[in-house]
Leucine-rich repeat-containing N-terminal plant-type domain-containing protein (Quercus lobata), 797 residues
Amino acid sequence: MGAPFATHLLFLFCLFTATFSLNFFKVESNVSCHAKEKQALLTLKQGLIDLSVLSPLSSWSDQQDCCTWDGVRCDNKTGRVIELTLNGIAGEISPSLLELKFLNHLDFSINDFNCSRIPSFLGSMGNLRHLDLSNAAFCGLIPQQLGNLSGLHYLDLGGNSYLYLDNLHWMSGLSSIQYLNLNSVNLHKEVDWLQIMSKLSSLSELYLSSCGLDSLNPSLRFVNFTSLRVLDLSQNHFYHEIPNWFSNLSTSLLKLYLSENSLMGNIPPSIFNLQRLEYLEVQLNSLSGKFPESLGQLKHLSYLNLEGNSLSGPIPLSLGNLSEMQNLKLARNKLNGTIPKTLGLLSNLVSLSISFNLFTGSLDEVHFAKLWKLKILDMSHTLLFFNVNSNWVPPFQLEQADMSSCKIGPKFPPWLQTQRSLQFLVMPMSGISGNAPSWFWNWSSNINTTDLSENQIKGDVPDILLNSIVLNLRSNHFKGRLPRLSTNVKVLNIANNSFSGPISTFLCKKLNRKNDLEVLDASNNLFSGELSNCWSLSGPIPNCLKNIIAMVVPEPNTQDAYFDSLEYNFGYGSYIANLMLVPKGNELEYEENLKFVRIIDLSSNNLSGLIPVEISFLSELHFLNLSRNHLMGSIPEKIGYMKELESIDLSRNHISGEIPSSLSNLTFLNYLDLSYNNLSGRIPSSTQLQSFDALNFIGNPQLCGEPLSKHCTVNEEAHNRTSMGKTEDNSQNSSFSMGMGVGFAVGFWTVCGGLFFNKTWRHAYFKFLNDINDWLYVTTILKVNWILEKLRSSHLN
């Protein structure tokens, strides 16, 4: 769901920026536009629709000089229209554009032309030098007439995913083209695209991302792109090796994009002949083999992304030659060996990502010696360990540090307190033990993401306000009361510690305020006290859970819903929340689909009292685990209202009474454990409940019926029928009351709604009331006078 939202946000931003910039096209000149061209523009306007309040069309008035209109630029000397920029519009493009004989710049990008075809008459506008039709919702075959624009320097048709070409030969007519963008245009039928494009001798930038191309013609020995500076071939389907002809590309090539192409084999040495290359993206392919030793030849390289391949071997010492390097991304490969100390020579390095590799050995002060500009450090899930002096002061100021699974301990790294700009600190499984130093909690109180999980840290968390959006202290040895948290916290994981004290005080204090809490795991601690009724959701019940809407409101149904993770993006980094949950009796780690899990897990604590009946209002809850506590009372009768429940674990408590018959209504229920309680009576009859193992009901001596081997006695059967009869009576009474309420509401609003919306009815109704009032008044007066007359006559007699 994130992707469509981000696309819409980008569209609105581009639309606002483009429209706002139109004011700069107004011409401050005494030369007026030609009447014929003005009329042509007004005719064009008639077929267009504004999609934005900032649309330039609102300034197109017949009373004004067209050279002053937004989006229109005229020649200062002749008054001829030479530039036209219209963004944020829909409708139809009129052939009246052909009257603009001197137009050299036409921008119809960021529009909605509702899947119409690109007008073929645009190919007759011979003076065009710049044509931008990107992201404008065009569809169909791109007209070959565009090949007549021999003077065109700039052509952008990108972002129109329903455009296609089955023949590129007409492009040979674009003899002056310098910038060509066909991103997302379907070219899968074109097999000679490479030879045709290479003949465009003036071409400087070529963008063919997501075009359905399936071959780079590896058999070719020579491709002549003499002027090419940017080549984008990302997100296509090249199931072969990187061809050697890349070494014949223009020596002026600065940027090369080959990501997400299913490329295989080794990185050819020829690619390192591109001496002026500054930007190289080859991530998310299937490249293998050793990391190329010749990397150091690309001395102008500032961005290198090889993530998500299967490259092996060590990083070469020549890495230190890349003095311009700013972003180095080598994550998710099979790289091994030690990190060369020449890494410390990269004085311009801003971001370093080497996570999910097989690196070993230590990192000392030399590895970071000249990394003055380093902001992002991701060395997670490697076998590296820090070996720096306790008084080491790093030369950098980090904003993001992910050192998961690296050996940092056993002590807290003292150098962290020198990092005043840090907003993202992730150090799970890093071998840290002992008490957290006194400086740590004050220093970290304003870090947005803090993950210290799965270490051996012990002690109390001091009574200071922690402002983290994500706080993960899972699987440590923390004790004492829970810390104070800001209302900004989204993820709180304190499972598997020794926190103690009443949980209801913490929960209700936290949840009664407006907050953004999405993930809470407090299982396996030493909490005590009752589960308070503050867990209610509506009516007169206190509203302490009202802001956790996901427990009540269904998730919108999206096509890729279950492929999303609960990811938090902060600009400087992202954090994917993960939890160890026990949804069906087995401990499982949820990460990729955690976003769609609704779970309450308060198992293995010292909770007492009743299970609050208000919990049954959580109709979107999937998993409920209250096992291994000291809960008493009965199972809420309305638990069957929780239609999405898949797993219920109430085992090892002191719950008594009968199993509610409403449990048989839970059609998704595939795990139920009620063992070791004080339940009694017959297990309700349903195909689902009888399908569970008898082990899930044992430890309840007074329970009988399948799947248990104990048969119910006559008294137990009669008691069960009586209970069911009461339930049915209550259900009938409830249905009768509900029917009365619905009937009253319908009748009331039928009458009142008619009076409110129908003026004739309203006048007739009030006239009727006035007539009734007059009749009652007259009748009452006559009746009173008659009674008084009778009394007077009686008195005289």
Summary: The helical segments are 2-20, 35-46, 193-198, 438-444, 503-511, 687-690, 714-757, 759-796.
